[in-house]
Amino acid sequence: MQAALDIALPYVRERRQFGQAIGTFGIMQAKIADMYTALQSSRAFAYQVARDYNAGHRSRIDAACLRVGRDPRSVELLPVSKTHGAEAIRVAHAAGYRRFGESKPQEVAAKASELAGLGLEWVVIGHVQTNKARVVAEVADEFQALDSLRLAEALDRRLISLGRRLPVLVQVNSSGEATKGGFAPGEVPDAVRALRAFEGLEVRGL
User: Fold this and answer.
1) For the whole prediction, is pTM greater than 0.85?
2) Which of the 8 DSSP states describes residue 172?
3) Helix axis angle, 188-195 relative to 149-162, nearest 10°?
4) Contact in structure between 56 and 77 (CB atoms under 8 Å)
5) Residue 172 forms beta bridges with which residues?
6) Within a 13 Å sphere around the CA of 7, how many CA atoms are in the beta-carbon half?
7) pLDDT digits (tens, 9 = 90+) for 12-30
8) In 3-state terms, what secondary structure has residue 80?
């Protein structure tokens, strides 16, 4: 997916240069038309590359599932769009992706607003501080890094006020590293039982 998103960046740079050239130099109308045609062609090429990239990864996932007797429909490829701009996400959307992973609440909120017309779903995958729980509750369609009951409480309060339920995955710190968040393996059973009390959270797995 990284390559598919990166293919959009030349288009973004060209478009910016196109706008700067018009504003600064007042390029002749014929030249502008030529540049616009080139940009449209670049965009179409980016879409095609992204579609091909998507198809290649999907076929590998399907083959791996069949080898172990698993339904391929149960496995999802989630492109991580953090640090990529709206145009790159549009390219990935044209390739068939509808769900995107983001790690920063402010960034996902901005993208969700800018791309509201595309019907995308946003999955928050990184650690979230309790003071950012409001943004996650308002924007996220899924949260894959629930790492404390304190954060669960903050999310639940906001979700209830919004009348929403949020699917979540419980983060487990299986390595025991102090620099990583999540519940210790031995804490998971009690944590999952405690999370059942939160009406706004729908625990779907680890």
Assistant:
1) no
2) B
3) 20
4) no
5) 183
6) 21
7) 444 444 444 444 444 445 4
8) strand
